Amino acid sequence: MKPTIAIIEGGYSHEKVISLKSAATVFENIDLAKYIPIKVRIDEEGWVAFINENKIPINRDDFSVTVNNKKIKFDFAFIVIHGTPGEDGKLQAYFDMIGLPYSTCNHLAATLTFNKYVCNQFLKSLGITVANAILVRKNEIVEPENILKTVGLPCFVKPADGGSSFGVSKVKEGNELLAAIQKAQEHGTEVLVEAFMEGREFTNGVYLSENGIKVLPITEIITQNEFFDFEAKYLGESQEITPAVINAEMTTKIKQITHKVYQILGLKGMCRVDYILVGQEPHVIEVNTVPGLSAQSLIPQMAAYEGIPLKELFSEVITVATKK
Questions:
Q1: Distance, CA of 168 to CA of 158 (rounded, Å)
Q2: Mind listing the pLDDT tens digit for each residue in 48-107?
Q3: Model confidence at 255: pLDDT above 80
Q4: Which one of 1.10.300.10, 3.40.50.1820, 3.40.190.10, 3.30.470.20 gives the CATH number of domain 111-129+198-321?
Q5: Which CATH code is given to the segment(s) 4-103?
Q6: Which pLDDT band, with edges at 50, 70 and 90, does 166 fall under?
Q7: Given its phi and psi angles, is residue 69 left (phi above 0), alpha (psi -120 to 50 degrees) or beta?
């Protein structure tokens, strides 16, 4: 009997629209000779599985569905929810409690990496170069002058616990800061105010293969916009060059940092580490533990250059995650 795979999409954040695109890619590239894929959607309307064009409620006691009086239990959860509850550790903790293996890192690593400020401060303590930043908590009294003394102008304001560039602003004047913070608060509970760095933007995919940590080719992102925002990411307003045109020494340096970040955070599954290269020093911007997998996304581009079919990549993620 082939294992039944739940491809989990949706979520409770603005990133749901991206999740649906990513889940479609996974569903289309699951090896049907090995697995039985079923889409599961988790959102504000509930938890449902899509079976024979019907929406079947999920039994949350054991993450099962009942069809024609027959209970179907899943053997594996392929998490493709960007944002909460798939990227912040909530689903991972739930699956740990019911004993269902899944495609990502555990709940502790997911919780740590989901907050960009907390993650970067942890990486900084281990000697990894990160952007200079300040965290603004919910209901905190904001003093723009003190913030700007630390990060300077221009600066970026973004949700500390959000992705896909929702709620991100580039602040050029001090009087723009409060409005930018309020905008970010609409998309997350805490806000990151980060120093602007003049440099080139890169991203590097990585996953745990059967032979250990596998670092994918580096991609350079050249955007027509002021930064790599939603339009640049998903509406074609950026140029993504894989592999990045950098010398062998810098390629090795970035890949080594990616490997180190993946290892010390205890990550699993497919991840992506984003960088700004200032001079000859790569600065880690953020770590994505449930990166986009849509046709426009970066991990599929990197895998394609490396000659790894998505069907093979997804099968390996499942195989490694289900090893005892």
A1: 4
A2: 999 998 999 999 999 999 999 999 999 999 999 999 999 999 999 999 999 999 999 999
A3: yes
A4: 3.30.470.20
A5: 3.40.50.20
A6: confident
A7: left
Cα(262)–Cα(266) distance, integer angstroms? 6
> Would you state the pLDDT for residue 237?
66
Which strand (E) or helix (H) includes residue 199? none
CA angle 45, 230, 309 (to 5 degrees): 85
pTM, 2 dp: 0.91
Q: In the chain, which segments carry CATH 3.30.470.20?
A: 111-129+198-321
| Three-state secondary structure call for residue 91 | helix
Q: Give me the long-range contacts of 173-180 (CB less than 8 A, separation at least 24).
A: 174/144, 174/145, 174/148, 177/142, 177/144, 177/147, 177/148, 178/142, 178/144
Among 157-166, 263-272, 286-295, 299-308, where is mean pLDDT lowest?
Answer: 157-166
Q: At 271, phi and psi to the nearest 5? A: -135, 170
- Determine the topology of domain 133-195 in CATH: Dna Ligase; domain 1 (3.30.1490)
